[in-house]
Each structure stands twice: as structure tokens, then as C-alpha cells.
């Protein structure tokens, strides 16, 4: 395990925009504090959805393979690219136009739109501080790529408790497909990112921070200047029991027609990756 730490950036600092973009370039991740997201609401969502995952109601919302919304149980969980082992997790895919328990929709919708607006600000920062040659390669302003997009996905994740000595990957090493991921503080530790030196860096678990990471689509659009960093969720100490854990990433996806690069639209790129993962059929 690496002894390095991911820098924490206060959004109140005068150079927070530059520090954010530098962190994305150096790590593929950035840790932000003093951000505009309502963490009280986030933790209320965690509590409400923990109760949902503990109930039988979840089985009334079994996922739709065509629309990819709804509940994915342990048997439906995805596997990382190149891995034959399923992740040990269950989750719910929320889209504003998709299905959701009526009593849980309002908080999710409010958070979804707040995080989406926040992401637009961050994408504007990325545009502003990208090197000239990288910026010249953007075929559309990054912040407008998600305008009117129906594809951005809010995933409510539940990692069940794991007994000591159990060899179950909570989330195997993977990269995100999308443009940018907004990840508010979870309610427990476990996230690790792979450093350029090949060592895993454990991310500090802080209630007040939001993590932001580059996805494959931003790496494609920036010709690799912003790396899509491999990350995973692991038990802090495999010899000890790991508590149940909640997490809620918002995966920002451009409109399918957006030209990420000369070789890919966002729609073509997503289709290719979902085929690789076995999420959709050829």
C-alpha cells in the first residue's frame, strides 16, 4: 500500500480550480471539501436506501435489461473488465425518467440535479485549465456535452458486510466508462486507487469531501491528458470483519451524439464498452 495521499482541495481557496485540474491530471482523481453538495441529504439517502436494501421491496424493482434502471441483486452484479468474478454488491440504477420507489424519489432527484450542476462547473474548470493543445482537441465544450443528456446515471450502492477471511471482491479493479464521476463521501472506508508506481493508494474516508474522477470518455476526449485511473473497493483489513457500506456515484454521460474524438461518438464508445462487459448482447 502506497504511503502517498491524495491532496485535499478546499473549494474556498482562490486557486481551487487550478488545483482540481492538476489533481485530475496527476491522479485521475480529486478530493474536494467546502463543496456545494448537501451532505446531510446524502447521509439521509444512505439511511433510507439501507432500509430499502434490507427489505423485500427491492425485488419489486428488478432491473430492466433494456433501460438498465432498477434493482440489481448480488447475482446480477457486474464484473470488472477482464475479471470472471462478480463484485459482491447490490445496487439501484436511478434515472430521472426511470423507476424508483415513490417515497425515495424526491431526495434522489434533488441530489441528482445538484450534482449534475456541480459537475458542469467542474467541467468548465477542466476546459479553462487544459493545456492549449489539449483544449484545441475538444470537439465540443466539455460542459455542454452533458446538456440535455438522458444518459447520466445515479447508482445507489450497497456493499454487504464481509466476514473476516472471506475472499469476496467488493468492487474489483476497474475504470469508469463515463466522462466524469461525482462521488460523495461514503459511510465507510474501502476505496483505493492505483498509483503510477503500481501501488494502491487508500483514499481517506472523510464525511465532508466529494471525490471526482476522470472516466474513459474524458481520457478519450483529452487524448490521455486526463487519465482514467484504475480503482477498487476493498476491505481495509481482510483479517477483520468489514461493515456494510453505502456509496452513491453519479456517472456523467454525454449525449450519445457527442463527438468525443475523431474516432468515437459517446454512443459508439458506450456501446463498445458495454459489449465488452457483457451488460448488453451483441
Give an account of the 3D structure.
The protein has seven helices and 13 strands. By secondary structure, the chain is of the alpha+beta class. The chain has one domain: B-lactam Antibiotic, Isopenicillin N Synthase, Chain (Jelly Rolls), CATH 2.60.120.
Q: Can you count the beta strands?
A: 13
Q: In the CATH classification, which architecture applies?
A: Sandwich
Radius of gyration: 18 Å
Give, in order, the helices and strands.
EHEHEEHHHEEEEEEHEEEH
Which terms summarize this structure?
282 residues, alpha+beta, Jelly Rolls, 9-stranded mixed sheet, 4-stranded antiparallel sheet, 7 helices, globular
Structure summary:
This protein is an alpha+beta fold and 282 residues long.
Chain-wise SSE layout:
Layout: E1 8-10, H1 16-27, E2 29-33, H2 39-53, E3 70-72, E4 90-94, H3 102-129, H4 132-136, H5 142-145, E5 153-159, E6 171-174, E7 180-184, E8 191-194, E9 200-202, E10 210-214, H6 216-221, E11 231-233, E12 245-247, E13 250-252, H7 266-277
Helix pairs in contact: 1-3, 2-3
Amino acid at each position: 500500500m502506497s504511503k502517498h495521499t491524495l491532496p485535499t482541495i478546499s473549494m474556498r481557496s482562490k486557486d481551487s480550480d487550478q488545483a482540481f485540474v492538476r489533481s485530475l491530471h496527476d491522479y485521475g482523481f480529486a478530493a474536494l471539501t467546502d463543496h456545494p453538495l448537501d451532505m446531510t441529504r446524502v447521509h439521509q439517502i444512505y439511511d433510507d436506501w439501507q432500509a430499502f436494501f434490507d427489505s423485500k421491496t427491492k425485488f419489486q424493482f428488478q432491473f430492466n435489461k433494456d433501460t438498465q434502471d432498477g434493482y440489481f441483486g448480488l447475482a446480477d452484479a457486474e464484473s470488472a473488465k477482464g475479471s470472471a468474478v462478480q463484485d459482491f454488491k447490490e445496487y439501484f440504477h436511478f434515472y430521472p425518467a426511470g423507476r424508483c420507489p415513490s417515497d425515495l424519489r424526491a431526495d434522489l432527484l434533488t441530489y441528482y440535479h445538484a450534482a449534475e450542476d456541480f459537475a458542469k462547473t467542474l467541467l468548465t474548470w477542466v476546459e479553462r485549465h487544459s493545456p492549449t493543445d489539449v483544449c484545441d482537441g475538444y470537439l465540443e465544450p466539455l460542459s455542454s456535452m452533458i446538456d440535455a443528456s438522458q444518459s447520466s446515471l445515479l447508482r445507489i450502492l450497497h456493499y454487504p458486510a464481509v466476514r473476516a477471511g472471506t475472499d469476496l471482491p467488493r468492487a474489483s479493479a476497474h475504470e469508469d466508462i463515463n466522462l466524469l464521476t461525482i462521488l460523495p463521501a461514503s459511510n465507510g472506508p474501502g476505496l483505493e486507487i492505483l498509483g503510477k508506481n503500481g501501488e494502491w493508494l487508500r483514499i481517506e474516508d472523510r464525511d465532508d469531501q466529494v471525490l471526482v474522477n476522470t472516466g474513459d470518455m474524458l481520457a478519450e476526449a483529452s487524448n490521455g491528458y486526463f487519465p482514467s485511473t484504475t480503482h477498487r473497493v476493498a476491505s481495509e483489513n481482510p483479517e477483520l470483519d468489514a461493515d456494510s457500506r453505502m456509496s452513491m456515484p453519479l456517472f456523467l454521460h454525454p449525449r450519445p451524439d457527442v463527438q468525443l474524438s475523431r474516432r468515437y461518438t459517446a454512443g459508439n464508445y458506450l456501446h463498445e464498452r458495454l459489449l465488452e462487459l457483457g451488460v448488453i448482447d451483441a
